[in-house]
Amino acid sequence: MTTRPRLATDVNYVNGLAALALFAVMGYVFMTSELGMPAGFADGSITASIGYAMFDMLDQAAIEAEGFLVAFIVIALVLDAALDGAVMLARREDDESVVAAITDGGRPLSGRESDGADAETATDDVTGGDD
Amino acid sequence: MPVAGPIEALLAVTLVGALAVFLAPDEWAGKLATAISLVPVAVSAWMYTAFDGAGNALLGGDLAFESTIGWVQLGRYELAYHVGLDGISMPLLLLTTVLTTLALVSSWTPIDERQSQFYGLMLLMEASLIGVFSALDFFMWLVFWEAVLIPMYFLIGVWGGPRRKYAAIKFFVYTNVATLIMFVGFMALVFGLGDSISTFDMPEIAQALRAGGNLSAVAGIQPANLSLIAFTLMFAGFAVKVPVFPVHTWLPDAHVEAPTPVSVMLAGVLLKMGTYALLRFNFTMLREVAEANAAIIVAFGVLSIIYGAMLALAQQDLKRIVAYSSISSMGYVIVGLVAFTPHGFGGATFQMISHGLISGLMFMTVGVIYNETHTRMVGDISGIADRMPWAVGIFVAAAFGYMGLPFMAGFAAEYLIFQGAFASSVIPAAPLVTGVAMFGIVIVAGYLLWAMQRTLFGEYSLATDYDVSRAPVHDVAPLVVLLALVIVLGVRPGLVYQMIQDAVNPLLDTALQGGVALW
Amino acid sequence: MVVDIAGFQVADWVALVPSLILGVTAMLLFIVDSIEPRPGTSSNTVLAGLSTLGALGAFLVAGYFLVLGVGQPRGTGAVDLFNGQLVVDGMSLFFVVIVGSVTALVTLASYDYLEGQEYQAEYYGLVIMAATGMSLMASANSLATIFVSLELSSLPSYALVAFLKKNRGSVEGGLKYLLVGALSSSVLVYGISLVYAASGSLQLNAVADALAGGSSVPVGILGVGIIMVLLGFAFKTASVPFHFWAPEAYEGAPAPVSAFLSSASKAAGFVVAFRVFLTAFPEVGGLAGGDPMVDWVTAVTVLAVVTMTVGNFAAATQEKVKRMLAYSSVGHAGYALIGLAALNAPDQGFVLGASMMHLLVYGFMNTGAFLFIALTEHWGIGRTFQDFNGLSTQAPLACAAMTVFLFSLAGLPIGGGFISKLYLLAATAQAGSWLLGAALIVNSALSLFYYSRVVKAMWIEDPSADLEVDSYPSSLYAAVVIAAFVTFALLPAFGLLSPSAFDAASVLFG
Amino acid sequence: MAGAFDFVPAIAALPLLAFVVSLFAGQYMPKRGAEAGILATAGSLVLSIWTALTVAGITGSATSYNENLYTWVAGVADGAVTLRLGVLVDPLTALMLVIVSLIALLVHVFSLGYMNDEGETGLPRYYAGLGLFTASMLAFVFSNNLLMAFMFFELVGLCSYLLIGFWFREDGPPSAAKKAFLVTRFGDYFFLIGVVGVFATFGTGLFAPITEGGTVVAESFPQMAEHALEDGESFFGYSAQTWITILGMLVLGGVVGKSAQFPLHTWLPDAMEGPTPVSALIHAATMVAAGVYLVARMYGFYLLSPTALAVIALIGGFTALFAATMGVVKQELKQVLAYSTISQYGYMMLALGSGGYVAAVFHLTTHAIFKALLFLGAGSVIIAMHHNENMWDMGGLKDRMPVTYWTFLSGSLALAGIVPFAGFWSKDEVLFEALIHGFGSTGTLGTMFLVAYAMGLLAVFFTGFYTFRMVYLTFHGDARTDVARDPEPVGWNVKGPLSVLGIGAATVGLINMKPIADLTGLHIDFLHKWLLGPEEGGWPALTSTGLHHYEELMHNVAGIDPAYPLGETTTLLVSALVSLSLALAGVLVARSLYNEPEPVEHTDKLGGAKTLLMHNYYQDEYQVWLAQGVTVPLARAADKFDQGVVDGVVNGISSVSLFTGSRFRRIQSGVVTNYAALMTLSLVLLLVVFVVLGGGV
Amino acid sequence: MAIQTQYFLLLSAAVFCIGVYGILTRRNALVFLMSVELMLNAANINLVAFSFHHGNLTGQVFSLFTMALAAAEVAIGIGIVLVLYRNFEDIDVTKAATMRW
Fold first, then answer.
1. C182 touches chain E (CB under 8 A)
2. What are the E-state strand segments in B361-455?
3. Which of B131, C405, D37, D494 has the least CB density, counted as fewest CB within 10 Å?
4. Whole-prediction pTM value?
């Protein structure tokens, strides 16, 4: 029962090798790439320019950037949706009674004893799976 | 051009009829479907008498009952509803309508559950088959071509024998793959024609290909090789439908499991789709490749004939015997086609008709006997002639028809094929090859006579526990009609052979050069 | 800025109306949700009706715009909005049509499906929000916009998959979807950052311009970026190797959500992929001639082959219909990828158009198939193939519809799937991509096998004694039947939409 | 003006009508369809005689007739042959028409006694079969081209099948019917190739050219072959000579099958399972003659190929001897007759092969009469014996059924070749022709003829022996069973035909008493003149089926010439004496062995040869082995191959796919960490392939 | 003297791969989410660095959006982890493996 992060003792190091391999490839590619010297920013307030860029007021920005107004509006929607979704998921029903789980039909599932749920959380009748 | 011609009427009647039959109660679905199917028979019979086509549909001949409607614009290509008949498709259309009606009548006895679905599907199949034989736009043709599979799948799967599910899915997947392969081949040709072609109109494509020099490279493949590849792919695809050795194994399973009327349609009409397509596509559009590879193609034909017949010889199940012999019979068509002679083409086409009738007759007769005995195994029945004299009489007649008895349609067809193939300048060592192919007529006699001796004659006995009596009239009536047709066509092949010749002769008009041999 | 739509001089943002309709609907649903007196008291009818209307509106307006020529060469030409952050052209409208129609079907079907469930307002809100994101993806023309709109479609989807909070399958599906999604979005955003590193821009046309220079482009960095971006989209389209979420999410999710994700979300993923790769990277991929800098065409070819193979082969041996459909959905992603793979063809618009048409038809047939699953879940008859045995005796209409879906998915001429699949095959032939063609044939055959297993169960097998269907939920039925009708009608009426697809596709190739 | 020739098609059409009437209405007729058959065959006989008279010039000037009447398949394109049905009437045709319709009529009448009076069921089917057979046979006879001949050749085969298998409820007849059809089908296979080849080579199958006002409008294929030979053309890569030989040999396949020549003779003894009238009509007098008739019909073609002639002669001579030896040990009446039939047709082949055209036709004629007689006589005995055919159960029937005995004796004398019965004259001429041509022809051809002659001569002895063994066992001595003591009486419908034929067997030889004619100088070789034609020049040269033409060809092309080692008259007499004395020797041996009250089997004296003969030289065995020991296992093997390999591949692909699928789905382990690992790995892989290796760096 | 941009790339790659490593080796759902955050931030490093490299602010601005998104993602993520715990009594991501193959 993990209720809080602990130092993991069952770490799967073998999988980790994939990450190392990825790093090796990426590192190789990056270090062999030819990149010129940084151009650096033009003079002016970076923060203000960021603000202008966010609202598509590019003509007022000191440092050039693309407009991000659409992204800005959309990110608002994203946060909205995330909030809604998170609340929906997190909310605890007052009523702890079990709602019929629609995806599991009323008939026994074949071939998978462990499917469905424990007796107290699901209505599934997992007896006698036929194949 | 008139839009509502007789072909449209045929399609409409069968489709609407199918719908009506689906909704009809089981009790009279069979009668209703039969009644509906009489309309196509009448219409197609009228069409036969009013037939005014001339020449080959794909090579600029005059089409009968032609109509064209724009359908879909797909990228650069224009798809159209384009139908019409020539001397090749008219007899096949007639075969379809007649055989469907007879098959429907022969269903009355064996089909006793889910009848409205059965008869509805049969009519759907008829509609698709009519489409296959009349469509002249490749894509529309393909729609009908594939649409045939769907009713067939259900007809075998629902009403078939013990292994019906296996047979149905095998038939389904096998022929579907074949279609896809063939499709790639044809599309490669269309793309090879490049800008000169902006439709899928088969006549246009065929004429562009035969004009020569219109092909250009596709994806780096040079025109000569392109046509060889296209030919190979299309041949492989159609060969499954025919079927040609070694892609025939779906057929016996499908036949054995299918209920009798479905076997009748399968052997009688569906197999002809394959040879019809071979004739229309491979041998019309890519004649030069076919000629260059005649040796290989004829080898497949001869192999199918002999091998199919040998397999038939080893079978115990009457239906299986007829099924394998269908492979053999269709092999003759291949040999006839590849001969590139007037009688070769004509005989091959005539064989499609005649085999359609005769194999339909054979299957129906076996079905009639099965209806009474509930077995088809050679060892289980003997002396059935004692109890069902008329059915057995027709069986004997049908069997001799199958063996190629003169004055029955089969002899005319096979003789013409042999005549055409013998004189072929395309087939290497044509006389010898023809002679080998002809040996099929001996083997076919062997297994049919053997089967008849064992089942029909001798002392009466039956392994299954059924009381055998004379077959009901509505079982025998279709047999009589078919037998009559077989004899009429055998005595007077010209009834359809005239128009067939008229349509196939243009195929030989121009000599084409430059076909690449596979090796 | 003013554009001419059907003779009216209107502001250019009008072209965005379909997406706006969806966005506004989503907001309305949130409002309904927040003003309801107690959670769950809002009328199901109002919610479902509102969302269906919104989706339908988006669909109709987008379709109407397509007819009018908005965003297309014969009409206004592509409408650039917000300095190229968004673009409304034939392709975007085409995909909004797909998204809108699928969403409408899904919300219609959900009316019955959600009966008695809590959080209905949230459900519809999230669906429409995700749909908004998808419609924006269709129009997004900058990597930034693409990323955020992609997330707008993803985040609600995670929640939707886990919507059945008490159902372990649903939650597990949601979790896997979330985790794989999170991983994928970080890969995507990392890829975007590398593309930015190579080009200095996020706006697609600017990226293309920057990369067209050639010599000074750090090809290695760009290559890593492109591959990562590709994989980011692979997640959205449920393509190998980022498809792992799909079988579980589709299986666990409520069936309408599965329908939604496997049809609309996939289509949206494809439109983004099409747009990014064909607007920003054509020269990099060598489409303009010459050697490719980063051969993403071949990469996509490999992914397409592997995707269709993995999807179909795994689907072939499933026991549960829904999971089979999930895998088949992966397989179809592989088919649609042909649009980006067989680009060696002389007529590239043909290839891409075929892919787009396939996604359109797929939208209807696959949605229909999953909604049929929703129906069976509603009936509670079980999920395995055997559970469907003899279902046609109880529900012939629904089974007939399902047959249409499955056979159309398999590419038989009973629905538009026939033509679209053959067109994809033709595209491979034209491009000479024999590998793709062969893979398509093999997989198509295999798919016919497993699709017909369902058909066989429904029509051929005998029903078990206890099979009983006691209700015929009208809206679910309506959705299934409409989907079936459209699937079927797309066979003869394929030509109504295909010119739009081919035109829109051709435009992308200049 | 409607002459006889306009009614020739009706000769076949009448029995065809009888077929239809018997089949559908026979069961409502008092004689179950026999009426229709008798009327029709009587009509055919009348028309045939009228035709023959017309040909002979009795009803006007002598003439022949050759017209195409029906276009079966019209070849539209260039190079597409047109296939027609037509009528050719020349002396040969006319003669054969009379024979066939006469015997058909008699057999129909006889059947009233054999079938109707015996209370058989299924008689409409029987008479329908007879009617169809008669129609087909007659149409075959007047066919004017090879294809038409083939078509009716096949139809008579069908009728043979149906009639042999008439008693289908028993096991034997259906099996025999199958064998008969199958074996002849095997021969017909070659025949069909020959037909196709002839049409492909010459574009026509006409036996004789069609003339119009003295000019040829359609050439015949023997003529075209002749021209090709003269012009040194080549066909299909072969010289004309070789190709003609090939075609001739192919057609010969059908002949050998139908005329029951070695090695395809095995079906005929089995065919005796059929009703005896059927045996008489089909398996003795007419259908079996079809093969020989065909060779005679296209004799102008065979004369172009000495090789083919030699083969024909050898087959004929060998078969004559071979079958005769087997006839020696048979115990059943009809079996003896069956082998005798095979043997006699061997003589005809011998004659044809060795240039004895007239002799062959002569023997064909006489044999038709006396063999039909013998079979009908046997039928009469069988009726009397309650369908017991074993000669060892008979004996002493002479006194109880005198009509049968005397007519049978007449037939037997004819068969044995005892002067002056019909068989003597014809058989003698056959042997004589073979002899003189054997001496006269050059090179190996002459040697072959002599070999064939020797075999034929030897067979004469056996013929005399088995014939009279049969007569003695059946009619002489004491009755050996109760049935034989009290045989069932037979009616007029049996005796009538027997009488007609019995007189015929005694007298028909008079039509061509060549030796007498040669000795006396009287022109009584009527058949020779009949075939030669009424005038000195024979038939118009254009007809090309006349004897005159054949004689030219024999001399010019085949190199067959007569030579008389002992002088013409002496040779003739010696030849006749030798064959007659051999025949008499055979008769006497039979008499000494079997003409006693209680004859016993002497076959044991043959030692090892007995087994061989009883088993028919194991001909059946090896053919059955070919069918069941070779073909069936081969078919089974093919079936195994098909199920296992061809279909196995199909099923294997499916299994492999599903197995692959079941492995692929294991990738989806359900553990999200594994997914992440796989995603990472594939990312690495893609990066390596498309960035590092792909030239990106 | 600005630092070579390549080293920023290397750094971001390192951070990215550490994130991947975390995902691959740890089973705790929350750790999984944290690792994803690391990967997102690796992208941010790139964006900011190349913003400077190219001399435009596009990357910088975009990095802000990335962060916002990360937050949204975590919100949903936490929600799902919550229901996961309620259903499986655990937040071990490998435990929720009832659906497979």
1. yes
2. 381-382
3. B131
4. 0.91
